[in-house]
Amino acid sequence: MIGRRRRDHREATLEGLHDANAADLLSYFGRRVSVAADAADLLSETFVVAWRRIDQLPSDPEQARMWLFGVARRLLANAARGTLRHADLTLKLRQHLETQPLESTDTAALDVQDALDQLPPDQSELVRLILWDGFTLPQAAAILGISTSTAHGRHQRARNTLRQILRPDAPTAATAPRRRKISTT
Amino acid sequence: MDDIDELVRRAAPPALGSDPGNAAQARAIARAVADERRPRRFRLRSGLGIAVLSIGLVGVGTTAAVAGPALLSWVGWAPDAAVQRTFELSAGREVGLCAVVARVVPEYGGQLSDAEVNERTEQAREFLAGYDWSPLVAAVTAQDIEAGLVEEQAERQALKDRIAAEGGNPGDVPDADRGIVASTLMSDEMSRVFEEAGHLAGGVSLEMAGQCGAGGAE
Prior knowledge:
The complex is a heterodimer of chains A (185) and B (218).
Chain A lengths: L8 H22 L7 H15 L8 H20 L10 H7 L9 H12 L2 H12 L4 H8 L3 H19 L19
Chain B lengths: L2 H8 L9 H18 L19 E5 L7 H7 L5 E7 L8 E11 L7 H17 L3 H5 L3 H24 L12 H19 L7 E9 L6
Antiparallel strand pairs in B: 1-2, 2-3, 3-4
């Protein structure tokens, strides 16, 4: 009797990871591309690259999820340089997404998006990961491949800049009156 | 979260993945890519109506010549190794022939240099072509196939249920058959030995295909 059919653990893990994160990855790409249909191709390419790099898949589920979004982030950067490929298997989703405009008509939202675009890219992406995609700061740091302390500093600078752009009349952290607690004994 | 955070959060473009139709399509793409990319799993092709009720080994061959042109035409590549196993029907009917072909494929683009990938690929090809696969394939038993059939059918039923739940057509998933199970068991054993010999440690993948029934050796 030969051994029972085996299913490689890492392959099963990767399949589960993709299945669980497919929708979130689609949202991630959809918030960063100008043409919604391109999100389908980026999604497909992310899965392909993840399979190719399966030997690098972290065993920890949380780290594996961050690794997958790290793959997505690098692909997005490459796509911005014009290397996006159209895959046949994304055709159906592409056609569906072509009917879904991404442009907001909300002027307030557009102002905020413009403000984000004025930030250095490493800061704006950090803010998007946290406030648009729902990652915690340490998770966003892992996706960006930076330390949590570095991410914390960038996040603070990004928020200060956004406040100056979006609330120009409001006092900044540097100019706001400071409360002091004085105790007398 | 302060007011600026709240402003930014509310300015987020719509989440495409929150649309159930988009999400289902996204998961379908994940599965399609997995089917294409899964490097160590067997590519299934439906057997040609073979009904193996009990099995007796009639012959085993392990030269490239044993793989039939129908199978080779279907896979579209020259195998590094080909294995053939003949199964006999219990009622004395004609034997069923299963053929499995395999080749080594380099995987560029990872952490290894192209030169290292090339070297690993060559070593893996030598192993695949030179290994005596006959005893391994001959060890497949009727019990293995029956157990595999039950497992395979359960997996397919789960897939059908999932597709139905997502609004798809479960009829697209064919039922399991013994021909598929037999050739899958053969390929699984080959890939196991291949992996245990250290040839799936990066830079190399093993591509396999198989068929049972007349097409396996036609």
